[in-house]
Design brief:
Blueprint (H helix, E strand, L loop, with lengths): L5 H13 L5 H18 L10 E6 L3 H15 L3 E7 L7 H12 L4 E4 L13 E5 L11 H11 L4 E5 L21 E5 L11 H4 L2 E5 L5 H6 L4 E3 L2 H7 L14 E5 L6 H13 L4 E7 L3 H7 L4 E5 L13 H9 L3 E4 L7 H13 L4 E3 L2 H7 L3 H5 L4 E3 L3 H8 L10 H15 L2 E4 L4 E4 L5 E4 L11 H14 L4 H23 L6 H6 L1 H9 L3
Parallel strand pairs: 1-2, 1-4, 2-3, 4-5, 5-6, 6-7, 8-17, 9-10, 9-12, 10-11, 12-13, 13-14, 14-15
Antiparallel strand pairs: 15-16, 16-17
Helix pairs in contact: 2-3, 3-4, 8-18, 9-17, 12-13, 13-15, 17-18, 18-20
């Protein structure tokens, strides 16, 4: 599912209307009908109940979509009342046509001339926001701003058409009043702003409604950034053989842990097992192996030569690690390894000669930053998972997540992926994945409760598990990011983001997989 800016969406609409001769009124009809059907099918609105629904329409085509939604809900037996900012002769051409159709269908209509005209909505269970669409920019003025603030004060569930009114479609910012939606039904394609900055909180649950634009029109725009969806991940998840044994479900070698950081190894190993890996072996410094053996019941632990009294891997463990790697399907390396100079040299030498699929995180990323040729010269399929600080050490590039320049983040990530022939998963809000072939993905799942120690170690385990189960590096990164965020969202719903810890993400993985597998 490709992401679009307001400009590219306008171009797509124009191409469909001008070159493919699809009437704009037909696109509006399918948009409104599609939203109404989703509301009814998913029982967000139930005609059999005593729901009172208000549809609030602006003067433009977003308002026109609202007129269509109101008409379909009315015809389905919903108690709906339509409010619009007039006068009628100020409506866009298509909105005016659908105003007339609503009148003909006897939908109750009220022109909003003053705020008192909206008293009805205080008793509504649902409010449909059709004030402003993708083309809106700037700040809502006077009456529109008052209407938005009035809607936000109500207890009703708020449903936005295309995006919450007042939100910038491109960067998720807003100037002044903006709708806080419980649901947003994006038309044709999702807009960047729904998944950036304030948009992530303001949009609520996002669903995509097709409006009849041909695929060839979309392809002509050469869109490059994809939104990771549940359907995409569900279709990529490895199928499990009901007759299979543990060896059939992947063997992962996790090189992890040091004195004081055994927790990182435990989190990665546990998340790998919870993600379906049949066998997980943790290669760790000999000094910490007894601790890990107690903490990890299901994973095997392999003591490796360490530096005396330091509890970190020694360079002389390289041969044993290389031999172990031959016995496993994939490698995960980095969590909790520490930054001793011998350990850093060890991981650089291992990564250089390794040919197994590998996910690289944490302290191994720091070790590689001292010699980036290690990445260029390696023949392995690699997933790198840096956060902003680690990425800066690797590249010198500063990636600021408190700015709204998502395009810059995509560009620097893509340049890195191409230069080093790796899959780059750049952690943050949002997490993005860049691939050497130019593919880019934005992950919409996750929340600020995941900004806690160990969350990245859980992600490493999930991706390593998927690699061991036979997924490509690209698919493992894409699916791993989505699954990790989904589990985090489940944990946040149960525990609140403030109270979450990394282990809660692991505990929520079964529910995350259950939801994805139900899509298959």
């Amino acid at each position: 599912m490709y992401l679009v800016t307001s400009g590219s969406m306008r171009a797509i609409d124009r191409e469909a209307i001008d070159k493919h001769k699809i009437p704009s009124l037909e696109l509006m009809e399918k948009a409104g009908q599609g939203i109404a059907e989703r509301l009814l099918i998913h029982e967000i609105i139930d005609p059999a109940s005593e729901h009172k629904v208000a549809v609030i329409c602006g003067k433009g085509n977003n308002g026109g979509d609202g007129f269509v939604v109101a008409r379909y809900l009315h015809e389905a037996g919903v108690n709906v009342c339509l409010f619009f900012i007039g006068p009628v002769n100020a409506l866009s051409e298509d909105a005016s046509m659908n105003y007339n159709r609503a009148v003909k269908s006897e939908v109750p209509l009220t022109e909003i001339k003053k705020m008192a005209d909206l008293e009805y909505i205080k008793d509504c269970s649902h409010i449909i926001d059709a004030l402003f669409g993708t083309g809106f920019s700037g700040s809502p003025r006077e009456l529109s701003a008052e209407i938005i603030e009035f809607i936000n004060r109500q207890k009703a569930a708020v449903i936005s058409i295309d995006l919450p009114s007042g939100l910038n479609a491109d960067d998720g910012t807003h100037q002044g009043a903006v709708i806080r939606a419980d649901y947003t039904f994006a038309l044709a394609l999702p807009k960047y702003g729904l998944f950036l900055a304030a948009g992530t909180e303001l949009a609520g649950v996002v669903d995509i409604v097709p409006i009849g634009i041909p695929d060839e029109v979309m392809k002509k725009q050469k869109l490059s950034h994809q939104l990771i969806t549940a359907d995409l991940v569900s279709n990529k998840l490895p199928k499990r053989d009901p007759q299979g044994h543990k060896g059939d479900f992947g063997k992962l070698l996790l090189i992890s842990g040091s004195t004081g950081m055994t927790g990182a190894a435990c989190l990665s190993a546990s998340s790998a097992l919870r993600s379906g890996c049949g066998i997980v072996r943790v290669g760790c410094p000999q000094a910490v192996q007894p601790v890990l053996a107690i903490k990890l019941t299901e994973a095997m632990t392999q003591p490796l030569p360490d530096i005396s009294k330091k509890g970190v891997l020694a360079l002389r463990s390289l041969g044993e690690i290389r031999q172990l790697s031959k016995e496993h399907d994939a490698i995960a390396i980095g969590p909790g390894l520490g930054l001793h100079h011998e350990t850093q040299e060890l991981v650089r030498r291992f990564v250089l000669k390794n040919e197994k699929p590998i996910v690289i995180d944490a302290d191994t990323l720091t070790a590689l930053s001292a010699d980036m040729n290690t990445l260029k010269d390696s023949k392995a399929a690699m997933v790198l998972t840096p956060h902003a600080g680690e990425f800066q050490r690797l590249t010198g590039e500063t990636v600021l997540y408190d700015t709204n320049d998502i395009q810059k983040r995509f560009d620097v990530a893509l340049n890195f992926a191409k230069n080093y022939n790796v899959i780059l998963l750049l952690k943050g809000s949002p997490t993005i994945i860049a691939c050497p072939d130019g593919s880019c993905y934005l992950n919409p799942t996750g929340n600020h409760g995941m900004a806690t120690a160990g969350s990245g170690d859980v992600l490493t385990g999930i991706i390593g598990s998927l690699l061991a189960q036979g997924m490509t590096a690209e698919d493992a990164a894409v699916c791993g990011a989505f699954i990790h965020g989904t589990a985090g969202d489940i944990a946040a719903d149960a525990l609140t983001p403030r109270a979450m810890i990394a282990g809660d993400i692991i505990d929520s993985l079964p529910e995350a997989f259950e939801a994805l597998e139900s899509e298959q």
